[in-house]
Write a structure and sequence with these properties.
Length: about 300
């Protein structure tokens, strides 16, 4: 693992050390899962939470409020889509130095619209003014999703296929590094603007796969890159990956020139979501997911 991301202020090694400590100290934690769950009176309730990191800084500065909302829904409901779970409710938390009612109302309005398209209800939220904690002009946002579904994932077997879905670009990860490279004039305005594209929301499409029993497991490829996120659902020693099948995007070619192989530890590198299924379901999955340009990313070999 390289040091460029660490020098930009994000220490992935320390984050992994934290995860190891939590797994050791809290035995029933869902620290390695995309979503956590609890059984309440026979109902399996799922929950996840996420934000959009420092991508919110340039989005807020440019008044790209719709993208803020879309990215927040994607960060959470794409996690929810990794299991056979229906998202039913969502709450938000917005922290500001000084309340900008016009901006916040636009963000929440767009958030409700994006959630409605996923048949998920915005339950409410919290907005907090914290002048002693956040600098002037600063805003942060988090989302919390609730779902109902099945507790046990299916067994992944030898010869199962791994299908990748194309990302819209950077999505909402690694922006501390992206912003640093841009501030050092290593990325052009055009390259930086391309990084601000809204994240793809895969949730509705992946729900169709679950409903038709075409999928065994899913992985949302976010911070930590392809292999780290894929390893959360299947051991990497069990799989063979065909990375040359990943659709090429110019921004990743440029980032590789700048930071080398560290891009694989930080960014999705063109893969936004992974699906594991039985090989006989591959053609149906490709048809249902065609809007995300699906490709065969690998196979389970053990």
């Amino acid at each position: 693992m390289g040091d460029m991301y660490k020098n930009a202020g994000v220490n992935l090694a320390e984050a992994e050390q934290l995860n190891r400590k939590l797994r050791a100290k809290i035995q029933d934690t869902n620290v390695s899962e995309f979503v956590g769950s609890v059984n309440y009176n026979g109902i399996q309730i799922f929950n996840c939470c996420d934000g959009i990191g420092t991508k919110i800084i340039p989005l807020y500065e440019r008044k790209l409020y719709k993208t803020i909302a879309v990215d927040l829904v994607a960060a959470n409901l794409n996690d929810m889509a990794t299991r056979d779970v229906t998202a039913v409710g969502f709450s938000d938390y917005i922290a500001v130095n000084k309340l900008d009612s016009e901006a916040v109302s636009e963000i929440i309005t767009e958030l409700k619209h994006a959630l409605t398209e996923c048949n998920c209800r915005l339950l409410g939220g919290e907005t907090a003014e914290m002048p002693d904690l956040l600098r002037i002009g600063c805003i942060d946002i988090s989302g919390f999703a609730i779902g109902i579904g099945k507790s046990a994932p299916q067994t992944i077997e030898k010869k199962d296929v791994i299908i990748g879905l194309k990302s819209s670009g950077i999505h909402a990860n690694g922006f501390s590094l992206i912003r640093k490279l841009y501030s050092e004039n290593k990325l052009t305005d055009e390259e930086f603007d391309s990084c601000l594209a809204p994240s793809y929301i895969y949730y509705n499409t992946i729900r169709k796969l679950w409903e038709q029993k075409l999928i065994k497991a899913g992985a949302n490829i976010t911070g930590g890159g392809l292999k780290e996120n894929l390893s959360r659902i299947v051991e990497l020693k069990r799989v063979e990956l065909y990375q040359t099948n990943i659709p090429q995007q110019p921004i990743y070619q440029r980032l590789h020139e700048l930071i080398g192989d560290e891009i694989y530890d930080v960014f999705n590198c063109g893969v936004g979501f992974c699906i594991i299924s039985a090989p006989e379901n591959k053609d149906k999955i490709f048809e249902i997911c065609k809007c995300f340009e699906p490709f065969e990313l690998g196979r389970v070999i053990i």
